[in-house]
């Protein structure tokens, strides 16, 4: 069984979704947040 190309594997991952509102999250390097910016801002208030 051949291994899948790692680049292809990561490109085929589903987009990250905010569990609070369901909005797709723009992922950034070195960011492990699960919520979108808007929901994080609401929590800070």
Provide structural commentary.
By secondary structure, this protein is mainly α. 31% of the residues lie in helices and 0% in strands. The chain contains 2 helices and no strands. The chain has helices at residues 6-11, 37-44. The radius of gyration is 14 Å and the shape is elongated. The N and C termini lie far apart (52 Å). The mean pLDDT is 85. It comes from Pseudalkalibacillus berkeleyi. Pfam families: YhfH. This is YhfH family protein.
Topology:
Blueprint: H1 6-11, H2 37-44
- Annotation field: number of helices: 2
What is the number of E strands? 0
Q: Based on CA inertia axes, which overall geometry fits?
A: elongated
N- to C-terminal distance:
52 Å
Structural class: mainly alpha
Bin the helical content: 25-40%
Mean pLDDT: 85
Low-confidence parts: none
The biggest beta sheet is recorded as:
none
Proportion of strand residues: under 5%
Radius of gyration: 14 Å
Order of helices and strands: HH
InterPro entries: YhfH-like
Protein name: YhfH family protein
Pfam families: YhfH
Summarize the structure.
The protein is mainly α. The chain has a domain at 15-44.
Features:
2 helices, elongated, mainly alpha, 45 residues
């Amino acid at each position: 069984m051949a291994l899948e190309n790692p680049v292809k594997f990561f490109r085929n991952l589903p987009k990250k979704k905010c569990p609070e509102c369901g909005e797709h999250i723009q992922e950034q390097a070195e960011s492990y947040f699960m919520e979108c910016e808007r929901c994080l801002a609401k929590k800070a208030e």
